[in-house]
């Protein structure tokens, strides 16, 4: 009798274990339930017109599309670098699930993928509708990052990096906003000179080479030259190039500050551009280990310039770089010495 009870008890225990094992088997998440080539997000035909990128240290950037242009609505409404948002969205849409790393909400904190702790939280929206929210967390290796979407607790490792989703507005600014084709410049007023493009002069910005025909008309001519001075065509070409290729370091704001030093600028340049009218640049005096400050007449913002951009511009605008002395003056100097 006791033997039968023991056998019955063991059978019942085995049955319970089988039921529990089956329950765990069918209730456990299937790590292979999603194909590895499945896109992390599926926007389909829904096109975002607003992006919010939040960083781990509280940084936040809002990108808004107005017409065909992306701007930074909370950062002086400054334009975003052309093509940067489209490239960013293409990268996000190209991310695939790959193989899952974890599947439970309990593991999200370990991978820094919670609402309280993350490296990046990227919200894609259209109007007031949120289309997708992506969390980027810890990095398991070079150009790999743990990621998930708001609707899913499954963690994936995707080929992406947090730096590819900048959370600071200045990293999205159009640094080339002040750039323009050099041939657009028609007149420059600087260093006591009024330099004008010769309508019948050569095209391009390079000065005549020694083997050019002597009769070739110069690109530029100037008013304000002293006796014995002539305009240095190569020097003017260098100044024009520096002006046309100007890139800002960052936007400082829209309010002038005494520390900018623009009440007594180190350099003032006025120039006329084709179909753009007259523009004035004021550049601050160089300070040790600090960026230069640029104020313009056609934009409300004040800009920081890297020293390696601002200093060469100031040097190119120096009168000694724009004029050459005639042979007569050189001879007189030689005789006096």
TrEMBL record:
Occurrences of domain DUF4340 (ranges): 70-265
InterPro entries in the cross-refs: DUF4340
Domain of life where this protein originates: Bacteria
Region called Disordered, residue ranges: 197-217
Pfam family, one: DUF4340
Protein name: DUF4340 domain-containing protein
